[in-house]
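Exercise 7 asks you to align residues with tokens for two separate proteins.
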Amino acid sequence: MSSTIQITIDAKDPRTLSAFWREVLGYVHPAPPGVELPDGKDPLEAWDEFLERRGVPEEQRNSASAPAGSPAMSRRNR
């Protein structure tokens, strides 16, 4: 029998924490909406560019990260 749990962690730097869990658990950061990522392109860099085009102030671009299990993050080896 398996069960699912979700843990929420408050972080001063969500981007760094997200990158850590990406490496540890094998999650893949998705591309921003409507953006096709070429092979080797860093998805987090693509998000920075996307948010800049949308006019999000730089100081707010690292204020949140998508929770694990949300449609915004997916497992590599499902």
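Second protein for Exercise 7:
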Amino acid sequence: MSESDNMYDNTVPRAFMESLGFELPEEAFSFQIDGSDIVFTLQIVEEVGCDFRIFEKQEKFPLSDEQVAKLKEAGYYRPEGFMIL
């Protein structure tokens, strides 16, 4: 993986994603494009007794033509993924 392929170097404002019509939960921290779908990764924290368990969950949604166009126009329609800030 090259340095430019690291999603942690690529960020997208949460407000931009919400302007596309996505209601992002606080746990959503990244996304990737998979064909004509968008895959959000959520980081879930559960309290188990005195400890915490952290795991990731992915949710996949189809993209409309308008959403694809806006993502491409903004430079976010790439498979390597982006962090959501």
